[in-house]
Write a structure and sequence with these properties.
1,5-anhydro-D-fructose reductase-like; TIM Barrel; Aldo/ket_reductase_CS; three-stranded antiparallel beta sheet; AKR; 13 helices; NADP_OxRdtase_dom; binds NADP nicotinamide-adenine-dinucleotide phosphate; eight-stranded parallel beta sheet; 345 residues; 13 strands; disordered C terminus; 15% strand; alpha/beta
Length: 345
């Protein structure tokens, strides 16, 4: 499924489209940062961009992509743009309107891939409070996802944060198989069984938070929440290998994932780190080093950015929920459930 002969390796989706194995993640990148970062990323050679309506940055991303296309510096068919159906869209009749809204934000006629962002929905109860809905009818939603391919609004469809059981059930009950799973994956949380299942069913896998999301501690503190996530980039094995290969710890970690045939979408708005993250296709880890890195897997206890409903953000009385830009919207108080909850994007 993976073609990696050059530093432009791709993963082939079941619709025949080739997706660059390294893309740019954009969660937590605010509008201003995003515009500058997009120009830089395109100049560096990024062609695969991952966003979501929840990230509130589709507009700056679309603005820069359209500017480059208008200038004749890039063609639409050279780009691979992914966005996602939010939990509030997990209801019949809401799927196409949400994609149309994203397309309007991105100023595009179609996206290359539309993903169901998470398996659960968010709905409002009698008191108009946002609550998590774990009873979403995945088959009904998937039929509407398939219709988006039929009418050309997206080339590919997939899922994100779904479990093996949820994917297996969808595979049995679909007309168009999911073409991609986006899921948290890094040395501490390698999801070997899930990846094997997907690859065995022609579903490509893209690792989100492929560096272990080291910016999460700061992200939480922007909401006034104290939560320390482990910094995987400082693991002794990674720093030792980085020295030995004359690479950085981030490059070793990304290479380990890509070498297993899984795509990566590291987020960075720093030109230096964006460049570094793209340069992981021109070297190879030995089998022995691959095994050493694979042995760091901690199973589910290694998960860092676990999906949560984000109803606490939806319920924020102080204004429009700003899911991904804490520096623009600081919460003034915390409560127990926030402190104990995990996150995702
Ligand atoms: N589907 C989902 O539910 C879901 C969940 C999580 C993430 N995602 C997607 O996956 C993308 C990546 O995940 P993520 O943003 O959680 O985390 P990540 O890519 O693992 O880590 C990003 C963090 O690492 C820093 N960084 C980037 N490159 C680095 C390098 N070479 N050396 C040192 N630090 C580096 C970034 O800071 P700087 O910007 O300052 O470089 C940022 O703080 C997201 O942006 C989003 O597009 C999707």
């Amino acid at each position: 499924m993976m073609s990696s002969s050059s530093n432009r390796a791709t993963l082939e989706l079941s619709n025949g489209v080739k997706m660059p194995a390294v893309g740019l993640g954009t969660w937590q990148a605010t509008s201003g940062d995003m515009t500058t970062a997009m120009h830089e990323a395109l100049s560096l050679g990024y062609r695969h961009f991952d966003t979501a309506i929840l990230y509130e940055n589709e507009r700056p991303i679309g603005g820069v992509l359209n500017y480059w296309m208008e200038q004749g510096r890039i063609r639409r068919d050279e780009l691979f743009v992914t966005t996602k159906l939010p939990p509030t869209g997990m209801y019949p009749g809401k799927v196409e309107p949400y994609l149309r809204k994203s397309l309007e934000n991105l100023m595009l006629d179609y996206v290359d891939m539309y993903l169901v962002h998470c398996p659960n929905g968010i709905k409002r109860d009698e008191e108009n409070t946002a609550v998590e809905d774990t009873q979403v009818d995945h088959v009904a939603i998937w039929k509407e996802m398939e219709a988006l391919v039929d009418c050309g609004l997206t080339k590919a469809i997939g899922i994100s944060n779904f479990s093996l059981e949820q994917i297996a059930s969808l595979v049995k009950n679909c007309r168009i198989r999911p073409m991609n799973l986006q899921t948290e994956l890094h040395v501490y949380f390698q999801q070997k069984e899930l990846v094997e299942f997907c690859h065995g069913h022609g579903i490509t896998v893209v690792a989100c938070s492929p560096l272990g999301s080291p910016g999460l501690t700061a992200f939480y503190s922007g909401y006034g929440v104290v939560k320390n996530v482990p910094n995987l980039l400082e693991l002794p094995l990674l720093t030792e290998m980085a020295k030995r290969y004359d690479r950085t710890a981030a490059q070793i970690m990304l290479r380990h994932t890509v070498q297993k045939g899984v795509g990566v979408i590291p987020k960075s708005t720093s030109p230096k780190r964006m460049k570094e993250n793209l340069e992981v296709l021109d070297f190879e880890l030995t089998t022995e080093d691959m095994e050493k890195l694979s042995a760091l897997d901690m199973g589910t206890s290694g998960q860092i950015t676990k999906w949560e409903s984000w109803t606490w953000v939806e319920n924020d009385p102080s204004g429009t929920p700003s899911h991904h830009a804490p520096q623009e919207k600081k919460r003034t108080s915390t409560n127990k459930s926030e402190e104990t909850s995990s996150t995702s994007s």
